[in-house]
Amino acid sequence: MMQTDLPRRLAAEALGTFFLVATVVGSGIMADTLTEDVALSLLGNTIPTGAILVVLITVLGPLSGAHFNPAVSLGFALTRALPWRELAPYVAAQVAGGILGTFAAHLMFEMPMLQASATMRTGPAQWFSELVAAFGLMAIILGGLATRANAVPWLVGLYITAAYWFTASTSFANPAVAIARALTDTFSGIRPGDLPGFIVAECLGAALAVWVAGWLWAKRSA
């Protein structure tokens, strides 16, 4: 990562999360408009999300690390790659960018900007799915950085594309995205009251991945 001052890194995090959420929410609205087939709508939501992650991480990664995710930022703070004093500003930038991304998606599709989701996503299976999704995401990032750093954008994009389909929760894996999705009563929404379970599971999954990845890819002396 190039040496970039904190304001520009925060701007990169906000901008990246903005476009990530605008893609998640906007593609969900588009897919739901074009078809009544739920599986096809999910596919129409999945592909743009994976694609935009490749683009955003490639372009903004050299500036801020391209976390776009408080759980990932927590993971990097645990590895000391991100100073703890910068964790709160990173999270604030990500959440703000994500909320603005939801608002932008609503405006692009001529929908009310301010909404609250009524889509129920709760229960042990959903929480465990989010723990697994966030664990996998953090492990993929750390493993990629340890083995082939230039492939991380593709690794993350492909992982999220797959995780949409192998998790019961459709792999939010991101507290900022979850908060932003609570503000849309569309295909990708989540009830605000269901957020705590998701956020706790996501952060726990990322923290566990730091521990496991630190053991798997530990540098050993010859």
Automatic annotation (TrEMBL):
It holds the Pfam family MIP. Gene3D superfamilies: Glycerol uptake facilitator protein (1.20.1080.10). GO terms for cellular component: membrane. The keyword Transcription does not apply. It is a multi-pass membrane protein. InterPro entries: Aquaporin-like, Aquaporin_transptr, MIP, MIP_CS. It comes from the Bacteria. GO terms for molecular function: channel activity. The chain crosses the membrane at residues 47-66, 87-107, 127-146, 158-183, 195-218. It is found in: Membrane. Keywords: Membrane, Transmembrane, Transmembrane helix, Transport. Belongs to the MIP/aquaporin (TC 1.A.8) family. PANTHER family: AQUAPORIN NIP2-1, AQUAPORIN NIP3-2. This is Aquaporin family protein. It comes from Kangsaoukella pontilimi.
